Amino acid sequence: MTVRRHDPDRRSRIIDVCLDLVAEVGVAGVSHRKVAAAADVPLGSMTYHFAGMDELLREAFARFSRSVSDGFEQRMSEATDLATARAAVVEIITRDVFGTHRDLVLTHELYTLAAREPAYRELTNAWMGRSRAALERHFDPVTARMLDALIEGLTIHRALDTEAPRHETVTEAVRRITAAG
């Protein structure tokens, strides 16, 4: 008699492991077989839960982008005035959203995938939309777009530079962008 393993969190674990593998080896290095082995699930579970690698990657990156957006929205919702909104943006850049190497790598893996595959742009556009909406609680739409571009640009610098941007430099950039015209 075969004993079935009760594993109600299997699908979620597969998604988490997929993100970990993407951070470790990149999208190109991830396969169903590698995810199954790392998640300690039978290979057949992969096709049971996901139609293919594309579906798994989309769900994994959707989870990741929602998580980042949730943190972004939380930080911006705590701001009560211009000074705390500026400080929140600085914290988003320097500490929160892209504070780990894993998150930086996942962000850029998603960006690269979205640049190549239009279907993934839905994820990045939704992510940018949520970011801008959170910023627009405190800043006009044009300023929110500029701040969003600063955040995205500094993530590139943070991922590629040998030194993280200095807190003082980020603070000054946010101040300049949000200064009354």
Plain-language structure description:
InterPro entries: Homeodomain-like_sf, HTH_TetR, Tet_transcr_reg_TetR-rel_C_sf, TetR_C_31. It holds the Pfam family TetR_C_31. It comes from Promicromonospora iranensis. This protein is mostly helical and 181 residues long. It has a single domain, classed as Tetracycline Repressor, domain 2 (Orthogonal Bundle), CATH 1.10.357. It is 76% helix and 0% strand. It has nine helices and no strands. The longest helix is centred in the middle third of the chain and has 25 residues.
Q: Can you give me a brief rundown of this structure?
A:
With about 180 residues, the chain is mainly alpha-helical.
Short descriptors:
Tetracycline Repressor, domain 2, DNA-binding transcriptional regulator YbjK, TetR_C_31, mainly alpha, about 180 residues
